[in-house]
Amino acid sequence: MWYNVCMKRLTIILTLFLFFINASIAAPEKTVKKDMKVLTTDGFSMCATLEYPKSKQKEYSTVVFLHSLGYSSEWWEGLPEEFLDNGYAVLKIDLRGHGASVYNSKLVRLSWKSMTNTAYSKYPTDVIKVIEQVKSDNKKEFFNNWAIVGSDIGASTGILVANKIAYKPKTIVMLSPVVSTKGLYIPVKLAELDNIDILTISGDGDTQGQNAQEYLKKFAQSQFAIYISESRSSGMIMLKKDKSLISFIKSWVDQYLK
């Protein structure tokens, strides 16, 4: 009796094991995912992830994600997946001092908490360096048709990147925008951007973000849309509190990249 019970349990366990093994083998990967390490001009190691739907197409519309201060690329909730599921390529970058991008040229760990404004001023060139690496390392084209989604310091970095890079993004989405943070002052650079429409989003309880929206709008040369989320939080946390933002941001980007 005891032997029969043990054999039945073993049979069930083996059946479940084989089921999961077969399922993993049978299910082909739907995307290509490439983890990147890019050395900046001062030897800092920038980490990023490029992911795109697996297909034979040679060109993708791409969304670059630049996260909030103190966070990392892991905090974007389901937003990158929403774009991937709809045929976009996604480039998520850990900004200097955040996530996996924390080692300088001497392999000393550097956190955003101890960084000076001089280090933060390198954010735009860091991001451009990663984008250029994507272009040089891949036969597929990702930056003929692209957009930036950034949150607070990532949003500021996005404006500065768009101002500096030769091949301009079609649109920029700014979550909880700021006028100036860690020495990154953006109104003047925003005023120099032509033909780039911008969507800004702040939470209902984010007075600082709402004030920044109104102030920055004065400098915009193209459409500068202001949206107030029902969420009372700010930055990337809004995506967790207000799930409707994911489809809303996707719909905005679709206007420019589809």
Topology, pairings included?
Blueprint: H1 2-26, E1 31-39, E2 45-53, E3 62-66, H2 79-84, E4 89-94, H3 117-120, H4 123-137, E5 146-151, H5 153-164, E6 171-175, E7 180-181, E8 184-185, H6 187-191, E9 197-203, H7 207-217, E10 224-229, H8 237-241, H9 244-257
Parallel strand pairs: 3-4, 3-5, 5-6, 6-9, 9-10
Antiparallel strand pairs: 1-2, 2-4, 7-8
Task: Describe what you observe in this structure.
The protein is of the alpha/beta class and 258 residues long. The chain has a single domain, classed as Alpha/Beta hydrolase fold, catalytic domain (Rossmann fold, 3-Layer(aba) Sandwich). Helices cover 38% and strands 22% of the residues. The longest helix has 25 residues, at 2-26. The protein is globular and about 40 Å long. 39% of the residues are buried.
